[in-house]
Design brief:
Layout lengths: L4 E10 L2 E2 L1 H9 L6 E2 L12 E2 L21 H17 L11 E6 L5 H14 L8 H5 L3 H10 L5 E2 L7 H14 L5 E8 L4 H9 L29 E9 H6 L6 E10 L12 H14 L8 E3 L6 H15 L8 E2 L2 H4 L6 H15 L1 E2 L22 E2 L4 E8 L3 E9 L4
Parallel strand pairs: 5-6, 5-7, 10-11, 10-14
Antiparallel strand pairs: 1-2, 1-8, 1-9, 3-4, 7-8, 9-15, 12-13, 14-15
Helix pairs in contact: 2-5, 6-12, 9-10
Length: 414
């Protein structure tokens, strides 16, 4: 018999706030976290805007001597985990730590550290490279450092599936708990790629918005004048527990996770299949896992990156999934406010979907000003909206055609 799995904590750190409730408040207010880049000098770059985590001080979570051992993506993950653990009201002594796991993913990892240490190599030779270079940059050290902090000795892993990475981490963690291989998982994603190489690489692909003079209006998913995505940074961490474990320690239950789907496009290294087939199949797989018909879904947190091709293809997939009722299903892209966290996006947006269910309110898609005939669904334009719904679907699609979808259920107390 499979076990029920619930969400007891959400930790969000992004351009809209350092902390879950601050982020949520600003999302519902329709604020944009996108601004001019300050983490490096972007003067000569085509794209000079991003969704930076403003005012982030890692010393609020780390001792000074620890900083050199961790890239910014790990620091953000530790902050996100702290917010999630606090919301879940969990202390390590409440659990058998052999049954508490960590699964925190990233698309790229420590770009900031790679750039820094490469500079040392060029200027001073190999003896100048830090002994902490590798463990401060590799992707699984976000999971590793979180597990060390809390003493979590259960399953420990990290995926690197591009922009689907943290959705895969949450889905895989759901299945780990569901099958009894752990009682609790600290899971999600983190990313910190607002660096010269990160921004330069995506800009060279012509993937980024160049609306540099209006940063707050640059990320505009589904709008006819969208011209590319805006890179964001941050972390989105969830606490998943077996229902029995959560009830035993009288945890606050925010929602239940009931479905997880995976699919591959097998089409192109960066573009989704033109007919949206991969996106359609992953949503269908998640609903099948949840034993739900499409009409049960009351809200979709879209991948919605603000790229001309991607948004139109996701719309096509949603129409195929929902059929004639597609225009009645609210769909929003919170990337319009946070920017695109790449490998951290699925974690952030899963957390947002959980909060939407908890509070029965739909976050908006801001900057939706010019309707696009290819994108003609209900995108919850520009203002949050009260709603009554029981299921939320969260989409994540990554380079290489790797897709993930998660289904969350409103917690009814039963």
């Amino acid at each position: 018999m499979t076990r029920r799995v619930v969400v007891t904590g959400v930790g969000l750190v992004c351009a809209l706030g350092i902390g879950t409730e601050e982020t949520w408040k600003n999302l519902l207010a329709g604020q944009s976290g996108v601004a001019a880049i300050t983490l490096f000098d972007p003067t000569c770059f085509d794209c000079r805007i991003a969704g930076e985590v403003k005012g982030f001080d890692p010393l609020n979570w780390l001792e000074k001597k620890e900083l050199k051992k961790m890239g910014r993506f790990i620091q953000l993950a530790l902050a996100g985990a702290d917010f999630a653990v606090r919301m879940a009201n969990w202390k390590p002594e409440q659990s058998d730590l052999d049954e508490v796991g960590v699964y925190v993913s990233s698309g790229i990892g420590g770009f900031d550290i790679i750039e820094r240490e490469h500079g040392k190599l060029l200027s001073g030779g190999p003896n100048k490279i830090s002994p902490f270079f590798i463990p401060s940059a590799i992707i699984n050290l976000a999971s590793g450092q979180i597990s060390i902090r809390y003493g979590a000795r259960g399953p420990n892993s990290a995926t690197a599936t591009a922009c689907s990475a943290s959705a895969h981490a949450i889905g895989d963690s759901f299945k780990i708990v569901e099958r009894g291989a752990a009682e609790m998982m600290i899971c999600g994603g983190t990313e910190a790629t607002i660096t010269a190489m990160g921004i330069g690489g995506f800009a060279s692909m012509k993937a980024l918005s160049t609306r540099n003079d209006e940063p707050a209006r640059a990320s505009r998913p589904f709008d006819a004048q969208r011209d590319g995505f805006v890179v964001g940074e941050g972390a989105g961490i969830l606490i998943l527990e077996s229902l029995e474990h959560a009830q035993k320690r009288n945890a606050p239950i925010l929602a239940e996770i009931v479905g997880y789907g995976m699919s591959g496009d097998a089409y192109h290294m960066t573009q989704p299949a033109e007919n949206g087939d991969g996106a359609y199949r992953v949503m269908k797989a998640a609903l099948k896992d949840a034993k739900l018909a499409p009409e049960a879904v009351g809200y979709v947190n879209a991948h919605g990156t603000s790229t001309p091709i991607g948004d139109a293809i996701e719309t096509t997939a949603l129409k195929r999934l929902f059929g004639e009722s597609a225009k009645q299903v609210p769909v929003s892209s919170t990337k319009s406010m946070t920017g695109h966290l790449l490998g951290g996006a699925g974690g952030l947006e899963a957390g947002i979907s959980v909060l939407a269910l908890r509070d029965q309110v739909l976050p908006p898609t801001i900057n939706y000003e010019n309707p696009d005939p290819a994108c003609d669904l209900d995108y919850v334009p520009n203002q949050a909206r009260k709603a009554s719904f029981d299921y939320a679907l969260s989409n994540s699609f990554g380079f290489g055609g790797t897709n993930a979808a998660l289904v969350f259920k409103r917690w009814s107390g039963k």
